[in-house]
Write a structure and sequence with these properties.
Blueprint (H helix, E strand, L loop, with lengths): L8 E3 L14 E3 L5 E3 L13 E5 L5 E7 L5 E8 L8 E8 L5 E8 L8 E5 L3 E3 L1
Antiparallel strand pairs: 1-4, 2-3, 2-10, 4-5, 5-9, 6-7, 7-8, 8-9
Length: 128
Amino acid sequence: MLDEPGVGERPSEELLEQDVPAQEPLRCSTCRAEVGDPEAAFSPDGEPVERVFFNPAGHVMRVLLLGAARNLLGRGARSDEFTWFAGMSWQIVVCSSCKTQLGWHFEALPDVEARSFWALLVQRLEQG
């Protein structure tokens, strides 16, 4: 199931290396709504901005981390279970136009100082 993030990671890079000008926005691959910009790529820990994680069911999630995003809606309650980032809670995010799940929004727990960010599923994004 895609809903829950999990543990484990392997760096991967590809979406930002496509032969598309950097100024082209990232879009939902289902409806083409703009959801972010490559320039907003963000790493909360100095590791690559594109990574591979696994959810508790063992499904592979290849995500791009963004410090800013748009046209996304949170779905369901926030959780700190199975978080990919220590001290962070997560919430599922969907495209505000077509309601396709595009990833998760991560936010610091109350006793942690950290910047919030989005982890968007690479296979559900396109650029241009």
